[in-house]
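Hi,

I'm pasting everything inline rather than attaching a file, because the server keeps stripping attachments. The sequence lines come first, and each chain or strand is labelled.
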Amino acid sequence: MHGLINRAIQCFVRDTYSNEVWLDVTRRAGLEFSSFEPMLSYEAELTDQVLAAIADVLNKTREELLEDVGTYLVSHPNVEALRRLLRFGGVDFVDFLHSMDELPDRAKLAVDDLDLPAMEMREHSQERFSLTCFNSPDGYGHAMMGILRAMADDYGALVFLEHRGSGDGREIVEITLVENAFAEGRHFDLGARTG
Amino acid sequence: MGLELPLNDFLDVLCPMHVRLDPTGHIIHAGPTLRKLRADEQLVGRRFLEVVELLRPRRASTMAELLMLKGIKLHFQMRGAPRTALKGVMVPHGRGAIINLSFGIGVIEAVRDYALTSADFAATDLTVEMLYLVEAKSAAMEASRKLNLRLQGAKIAAEEQAFTDTLTGLKNRRAMDHVLARLLEAGQEFALMHLDLDFFKAVNDTLGHAAGDHVLQRVARVMVEETRDEDTVARVGGDEFVLIFNRQTDHSKLDEIARRIIDRLEKPIPFEGQVCRISASIGVVLSLDHEHPTAESLVGDADVALYASKRAGRACHTFYTPDLRDAPLATQPPERIAAR
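And the predicted assembly:
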């Protein structure tokens, strides 16, 4: 698994809970180091061990945990850079939804060894969409659900999300758009200086 | 004239930074994004070349001159602040012209200067993707930079903990302390030689550090070749070395080894067309010399013997005896360095 993903999970635990909780997680997961390097690659099992340890420590299911990680990635000030990169996807929430298909390509453009699972966004009607994730690690759809929920909030859209279970390596998230421009949303300055 | 309105509407969507000129070079219509660049000014009705300046391929001040530059890349600069650079292409239209403009490489600055949003660019324009890429790449670069810093720190820490001298591949002082402590603890007999290069500073000063490094590597090779695998050769200072001979306390044997090392080190060392000449002084001490030897006392005694060799005119070796400590400093011979 790419270090960026492991690192994101680590930052979620550190920023939302504490460094002590993270160190507890590393011990339980049997890690021989205390910090993931975002630009290195790790065995996929390691990510599963870490997620299991976090779920254990926080007393959450893997699904709840991954949704929280997704929400964190968009809404926490420490990862503002990522929220900005996602906001480049569209001018409003619907526009953003239509950019989800190209998310793996966008990620690759930034970090060329970062392989995200393929996704397909379908518009069933003006209010109903579904996002299918293919060949993704177990619970990936829940992480996407967290991201979508937080992005809706970011754009000021009102949505209802439902995870439609997984089967034959795919997970489906159903999105019901109650209102595209429900609230003001957070400001996005195209040319802001970050970092 | 009935066709004009739809044309403006088309162009506003397809090329939001276009400008339409009449036959005299005055602006008839400007796209919505171009208007944002001079939001406080009325562009329609002004001479285009008074709003922007054409820099390349050549300056033009009249509409006639401008009309000769059909279909090629034009470089403009806005007059007045901010002096934004613009790229453009002109096609004659009717008796006037249409010019489409874009920001070119200065787009990041322009987006900031004019607070532009995605809606200010045509749907097919890749500017927003480019801005995305710039941000994504800076974030990735920053992560790589941090990784490099951490690796650099780890490398320094590893070097501090290492037992090897990186230049010569010999053991370092830490390793020597370690070996010495182990031998003393085991009650093992051994001999310790303290070797100091003579005239090495002159090589460094006259031929440079690269020559100095080359000499040190050559010296290391000689010492490794003249010792057994079970012996220890350590570089403990710039041009100082310690050799520890396991279970070797035979005077004549050590005598022979020391002579051979010095002989070989005195052979001229070629380096990039120059010749480096050095020698070495050695002090030898045996673990048997003390009833209760310690690392400090042995190294101290070897040092005394080494300076006796230096006093004796360098390029020689001396076995430690307690009376060496009484040798008056006055007997030290003049430096031979000048004579060589």
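The longest strand of chain A covers residues 158-167.

If the labels don't parse on your end, tell me and I'll reformat.
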